[in-house]
Model the fold of this input.
Amino acid sequence: MEQKWWHGKTAYQIYPKSFCDSNGDGIGDLRGIISKLDYLQELGVELVWLSPIFKSPFVDQGYDISDYQDIDPVFGTMADFDELLAQAKARGIDIILDLVINHCSDKHEWFQKACADPNCEEAKYFYIAKGKNGQVPDNLRSYFGGSVWEPLPGHESEDLYYLHYFAKAQPDLNWYYEPLREKLFAMINFWLDKGVAGFRVDAIMNIAKDLTFPGLPADGPDGMCAANQMTAKLSDQAATFLYEMNDKTFKPHDAISVAEAFGVNAASLANYIGDNGFFSTIFDFSARELNEKYPAYYRYRPVSIAKWRDTIFASQERVNDIGFMCPIFENHDEPRGVSYYLPRHAQNPDGAKAFAAVLLMLRGMPFIYQGQEIGMTNTHFNSIYEFDDVNAKDNYKTALEAGLTEQQALDILNIESRDNARTPMLWSDEKNAGFSTAAITWLKVHQDYKTVNVAAQRHDPKSVFSFYKALIALKKNPEYKELLTYGKFVGLKPNAEYVVPYARELNGKNLYVVANFEDRAIEYELPTQGKILLASNDAIKLEGTKVTLPAVSAVVVAD
Done:
């Protein structure tokens, strides 16, 4: 494998709106992030991904971009961003931005011009089509519910529609039109020239479309078919565009590109993440995909530890000889991992530590989501009116239409909603968890902020934060860095349903991770003798090859 500058690093995702508010308006901002760079340096992360900070109406929390080359005033100014970039680099931290180029905002100048004149140049940047037989052009269902087609504003009487795979306010961009691609590539190079280290690439597999819009077999009672069913059939078309983007942007800058690419099959992985792949790496969403295949939250089913473990193991083993995927258990689009994947008896600091051990020792560059390092769990929402996410509101409506009661629909959102991860970062037990001095924050503060916060954990050697810090430090330890970066992943045989054991192997050296999510103590037989490097619980014992773990704990052992 060709070695790259980002290999061996640990990454951290910041959701700017909820990280730190510097000006008291209840919304996080760039100067707030600058004020917390010392914290990130102390934690040990070396790469930070910022969710969108560009100009936006915030229909989908910044993933509807109205100007790709300017900072939204709610976050600050370009001067603030330049200072953040410089201050982060001074601390050994690289910044990557969110690249949202499957779609833009309906307030973007391009779409406004398209609405004013469907025959203008900018109209070619979008998918604008005539209806068929008095109906919309085809039966694809948006990721946020309802048809992907919406009447083109101002041209309803002409039977013209525009396509949006996400919210109505997010018209999809037409990648089949070369002048548009060139504008997007120029924008990417603008940020790379400024000093950004790369991008997390959003929803990128959706850029491929069948321009005949033939209609696909329905997969739900609404007679529609999920948009990703079309996407899955057109990966070869997407690949052509992605190679071009890599050649004209990422590759010349030696930039890192981390793609949100769902459903990549094993045969295609080398094209995505091999030495000559069009991305540096992609996120491993295999566990989340266990439920993402369903069209609505109310049809999701709990994911057992055994299923979660087996899915992660299969994914890791699939890429051993190809490249890297990024292990990720939480992000802004998912509920909190401790609440979602762990059994109820493990939804606590002990479970969060064991969860961390599994994540950070896996092969690939792990991503920590803000608050994960202090063991944040799902926030409790008491009413649909406390949610902000457009997808949550859509799913609430869908659940009611399916016959669920309001309380049942609310209970489902409290498990599945993306807003669970978007509530403010918990810095202290002060007002608004130290996130903001505002009277009201943009989204409610987590119910446990008095006890679960950075201030309470930062100097506690037994805290979740300290365990994350120790795991990241281990990844940098010269004795183990090569093994933990390039070592092969080997799934070990579990001896209980809730046990997650695996090894990392390189040049005859071995490192073992055993996480016990059972509600009882277990003994596990390691393949070879070793020494404990890190233990989440003082009661963990190692005698010869036998390690004893109390309920909900984890250990890292090296031979």
Remarks:
- The first strand starts at residue 11 and ends at 14.
- The chain has three domains: 11-102+178-457, 109-163, 489-558.
- The radius of gyration is 23 Å.
- The CA atoms of residues 29 and 75 lie 4 Å apart.
